[in-house]
Amino acid sequence: MGRKKLRQQVIEELRALGTADDFMNEAAAALLGIHTTDMHAGEVLDREGAMTVGELAGAVGLSPGAATALVDRLEEAGFATRVQDAANRRRVLVQPSKDAGGRAYAVFGPLIRNTATFLERYSEQELILIRDFLRGAQVVITEHAETLRDAQLGRGPGPYPPLESGGS
What we know:
Layout lengths: L2 H30 L3 H13 L4 H8 L3 H14 L2 E5 L7 E5 L3 H20 L4 H29 L16
Antiparallel strand pairs: 1-2
Helix pairs in contact: 2-4, 3-4
């Protein structure tokens, strides 16, 4: 088949995986009654633990003001709470609520179980390769997202010229 063709197929499969993941996240967020950005923020909190609103803003690519509104929505929906930082009483942290994990697992549990079953076919060495590939792909995607956000905010030329409003 050739390395170039195989590399192109991997890129196409990554694009398809990204689209499938977007569609699944939209469906999951709708079922949970929250916006996809709010769900992504909840996932960051679940994975990383308590953090300030500013740290959460950086993690999900929002301005601090937009992140404050996001945390308000997460609190209202029962997915997060604000707590005083024990180490610095003037600092407020956002953390997942006690019920957030259970509610999310009700939606994502079947996906986690099916993925674990799917991965059983791979050897330990293959799983290490898959894990390392996914980590590397995440870095590439995250860096590109940051480049796009910087271009949108006028902090760099970005890879693309700005689009005209109402363009064709």
